[in-house]
Write a structure and sequence with these properties.
Layout lengths: L3 H6 L4 H10 L11 E2 L2 H9 L5 E3 L1 H7 L10 H14 L4 E4 L8 H13 L4 E3 L14 H8 L1
Parallel strand pairs: 1-2, 2-3, 3-4
Helix pairs in contact: 3-5, 5-6
C-alpha cells in the first residue's frame, strides 16, 4: 500500500509537489502538519515521515532573532522558505504572518515571492497591526487575500 509520505517523496517538481499537497487535503482525513522553524527542523519532520512540512511564523521569527508578530522582513522570511524547500523532498506550506504588507497588493507580492521560492501553500493570519483591533474585520481580510 502506498502511503501519503511515499507519494510526497516522489514529488520532485513544484507542480508535482503542489498536486501532492492538494491530494493531502481530504474532508475524511484532516491534514495535520508539523511546523518547521529552520532547515534542520524541516529535515527532521520530513525524515520522520511527514507527507508535507509547514513553517511556523513564530518559530521562524524566533530562529532569526526577532519577536513574533510581523517583526521580520519579508525577504528574510522568503529566503528561509526557499532554503527549507531546497532541503526537503516533500511539499512545503509557508506561514506568512499577515502577508508582510498593509495592502492587498503587498500580500499578493508576498504570496508571489513565496511561491517563487518553491512553497506550494500559504497561511495568512488575520492579525492587525493596531493593538486596539487584534483581528482584521472579515471583509477586510477577504479583500486582502482575494
Amino acid at each position: 500500500m502506498t502511503t501519503q509520505h511515499d507519494r510526497a517523496q516522489h514529488a520532485r517538481t513544484q507542480h508535482d509537489r503542489a498536486r501532492t499537497f492538494r491530494t493531502l487535503h481530504r474532508p475524511s482525513s484532516p491534514l495535520a502538519l508539523a511546523n518547521a522553524w529552520d532547515v534542520a527542523s524541516a529535515r527532521l519532520i520530513a525524515a520522520a515521515g511527514s507527507a508535507a512540512v509547514a513553517t511556523t511564523s513564530a518559530g521562524v521569527a524566533w530562529s532569526l532573532g526577532a519577536a513574533d508578530g510581523n517583526e521580520i522582513e519579508r525577504e528574510r522570511a522568503v529566503d528561509l522558505v526557499a532554503r527549507i524547500v531546497a532541503a526537503v523532498d516533500v511539499p512545503v506550506s509557508a506561514d506568512i504572518e499577515s502577508g508582510f504588507g498593509a495592502t492587498a497588493a503587498d500580500v499578493g507580492e508576498t504570496v508571489t515571492r513565496v511561491i517563487a521560492a518553491g512553497a506550494v501553500g500559504v497561511n495568512i493570519e488575520d492579525a492587525h497591526t493596531d493593538p486596539a483591533v487584534p483581528l482584521r474585520p472579515a471583509a477586510e481580510q477577504a479583500a486582502r487575500i482575494a
